[in-house]
Structures are given as C-alpha cells and as structure tokens.
Fold this sequence. Notes:
There is one protein chain. By secondary structure, the chain is an alpha+beta fold. The protein has two domains: 1-40, no CATH class; 49-123. It has helices at residues 18-21, 24-27, 49-52, 55-63, 136-139, 142-157, and strands spanning 4-9, 12-17, 71-81, 84-91, 99-106, 115-123. The strands form two sheets. A four-stranded antiparallel sheet has the order 3-4-5-6, covered by helices on one side. Strand 1 (4-9) and strand 2 (12-17) form a beta hairpin. The protein is elongated and about 75 Å long. The N and C termini lie far apart (76 Å). It comes from Nesterenkonia lutea.
Amino acid sequence: MTEQTSIEESGAEQTVSAAASSSPEHSGTGTGTGTAPRPRRAAKPKADPVLAESVELAREALVEIAAQAQIGMHLGVRAEGDRLLTHRFAADKPGYRGWEWFVTVARAPRAKKVTVCELGILPGQDALIAPEWVPWLERMNDEEKEAHRAEQAESAED
C-alpha cells in the first residue's frame, strides 16, 4: 500500500506507511521494539547526461534575453530533480559583477528532446548586491530626528 497514515508516539507525530503500521513491530504483537522507522532522506538527484550535454541549447536560450557578449563561460550544472537540471554561465554584464546566468532544462522520461523551463540572472557568491533596506526613520541621525520632530510639531500647530 502507498497510503500514508499518521500515528502519534510519545507526543511526536511520525508518518509511516499503512503497510508498515500493520507489521508486528507496530501492532503491539510480536517481538518488535515498538519504535517507528527513521524517515528516509530524499536521495540527491543525479545529473541527467542528456541534459548535462545541452550547454549550447542553454546558451542559445540566453541569447533571447541577453547579448551574446554578456554571456560568459559555462560554470557548471546542478541537478534539481529527476530529469531537471540547471546550467550556470558567468554574467559579463556591466553592473553585474559576480552574477550568474541560469537556464533550467528538463526532458520527459525516455525522451531525448530537451526543453528550456526557466532562465534568468541570479547573484553569485561574489556578487555585489544591495544591503538590506533600512526604514528612513531608522537611518536618520540625531540632528535629522530633531528636525523631523520640529517639523511634525509645526504642522500639528497649523
């Protein structure tokens, strides 16, 4: 059975399959320890070889949103899931030092045709990005705060 059931054991909820909950270990009969099985970790997806070889397709897709000169060398690939992979390219775009172009590609099971899913630009590890936004009232120094209070008092009197 693939149906999932939820059981409560010592105050913590744990999910086990219906088939496992009918085993002697979970039914209270037999010689089992009565402990729930450990949850399985999701396996790290493997890079699909057909998708990994689609570097030129990814580069061609980027040319639709950026000039050829702004697309740098291929930096690598990352498997996102089964038959889903992201190619990364250096961004040689003025004002975007350290940023990377990305193109996510996929294919259907047992198919060789690669499809572009998404593309864009993201900051890399060495990217220059804006600092966290700070509200105006928190950025003001003491003199500015005093001037602001005086303005507020003046407008309240009018």
